[in-house]
Amino acid sequence: MKQKKKAMSVLHYVLVILVLVVTLFPFYIMITTAFKTSEAAVAFPPQIIPKDTTLQHFKDVLNPEIFPFGRYFLNSFKIAFTTAAIAIVIGGMAAYSLARLVFPGRIVFKESTLIVYMFSGILLVVPLFKIMSSIGLNDSMWAVVIANLVSTLPAAIYMLSGYFETIPASLEEAAMIDGLSRFQVIYKIILPLSVPAISSAFIYVFMIAWNDFLFSFTFLSSQSKLTLAVGLKQLFGSMDYVWGRMMAAALLTAIPVIITFSAVEKFISGGLTAGGEKG
Amino acid sequence: MQNSVKKIKKSSGTMQKRESRLGILLILPTVILIGAVIIYPIIYNIILSFQKVALNPNRPSKFIGLENYTKLFADPTFYKSLGVTIAYVVVTVLGSTLVGLLVALLMNRQFKGRRVARSLMLMSYVAPMVATVYVWKYMFNGLYGVMNYLTVDILHIFEEAPMWMDHPVYSVLLVILYDIWRVFPYAFLMILAALQSVDESLYEAAQMDGASAWHRFWAITFPELLPSIAAIISLRTIWNFYKFDDIYLFTKQVPVLGVYLYQTAFATHNNGGAAAITIVLFVIVFAFVILFGRKAVRK
């Protein structure tokens, strides 16, 4: 019996490791290729454990004459940060309203998440493109911010209203009996209590906007405005693409989200499961 | 104190009204934004789909009735695209949900390093899509890709390396594998959460009755997971029906409806035709949601 249990436990570890290998193998390849020399990257049989290494690809990617990494990084950051800030302010207001206040139509709003998902991504691209051109927002970061807001707002609202509902209502009632207005209650009690929830919702939206490809690819056209995601595609499309350089750039694009995600993973995985992801 | 309580009680009617007004006020920005970015474009899109849209934005578009639709339904590429899309959606949705379920069952027990393993298993879902697509393209490269080395030279699954990005069948297989790899963590997380809320005493009772692990899974666990699984399937079906970006970056060989739509709009510049495809795509997803999704997601 004991032996059987031990065998089961070993088998369990083997399976877990197998899943990890399949999940992480592409990242392993990404990292090792970024450090391989260009000749080593195309060697056959492939060097699974890199023999000839170099830092040249990172130097190239960070060299503005070869690839404007800094500019693209800044553009991605501006778009993701603005999207997250707006989603948190607007979504936070809506979330509080849905969690605490009684008004006509509340149930309808609560159940409309699925409807919003039915209008996501590619479905909106053609009409939004026409509309953005007609109001002069084409090739503006705002077009990307607005489109990203649609795909992230439902998730932000869901995460935040779920959190607000866990704050005991009696806390607010007591404060209101003490003469605080509803606005003061939100400002002085709810907001300070919600800092962890608000930051994880913020980072979740930031991540989706940072990873967006479709909208920035469609709406942005000037070189100086492109995001990292679109920049990566261009790097690949250029005639003299170099795998090591590509992988170094891919790695530098992935690292910020992976780090921020790990920092708040504990809070965020609830939100991931809450639905609300695009693609 | 006593006084203020009385005051609040007296004014509770107006207070309720004020609360309700505040409730509407706070949700208004969301409603306006969603309206501006969803409802208006959709109406606009319906109008576009009945027009021959002029390339020059300064020239008026012409109303042509149902012509965009009749052209679309007469186009064999459309039916091919629809077929590829349905196959892609069915396999990826079932595949990623099944893998997610199996991994969740694997992770639903205590062991050393569980938290780290769980975080690492989410990596493919967290990393930017563009970054991971290009590693995959590199791994599946026909000349020096590591996957061809593994499948041909080590495991002898293939006689010679398939052209993963250029062959009409293997490229479909590739984008399917990629999608399952990328999104299984979503199903995994949702199912794991559901597993952890299953009442332990149910298992204990079943164990005392001498039910086997296999039997316990089907009698207790699976019914408890069913609502989450149904929700995952319906959301993932919607998302994958609209799939565009990673397939577009991978290959020109997999003409799903999202790619077909994008090409019609931005390569052939046929905005009226693209608008008609948008409407057809939406109607299909809408029918699916009515038939299957609404019940599933309400849970």
Question: Which tags fit this structure?
Answer:
heterodimer; A: mainly alpha; MetI-like fold; 14 helices; 75% helix; globular; B: mainly alpha; two-stranded antiparallel sheet
Structural overview:
- The complex is a heterodimer of chains A (279) and B (299).
- Chain A has 279 residues and is mostly helical.
- Chain A is built from 14 helices and no strands.
- Chain A has helices spanning 2-35, 38-41, 56-61, 69-100, 106-110, 113-117, 122-134, 141-166, 169-177, 182-193, 195-211, 214-219, 228-237, 243-273.
- Chain A is globular and about 75 Å long.
- Chain B has helices at 2-10, 12-48, 67-73, 76-107, 114-121, 123-126, 129-139, 146-154, 170-196, 200-208, 213-241, 245-250, 257-266, 271-298, and strands at 51-52, 62-63.
- Residues 4-8 of chain B have low confidence and may be disordered.
- Chain B has 2 domains: 13-63; 69-298, Orthogonal Bundle (MetI-like fold).
- At the A-B interface, helix 1, helix 4, helix 6, helix 7 and helix 8 of A face helix 1, helix 2, helix 4, helix 5 and helix 6 of B.
- Chain B: Residues 82-292 form the ABC transmembrane type-1 domain.
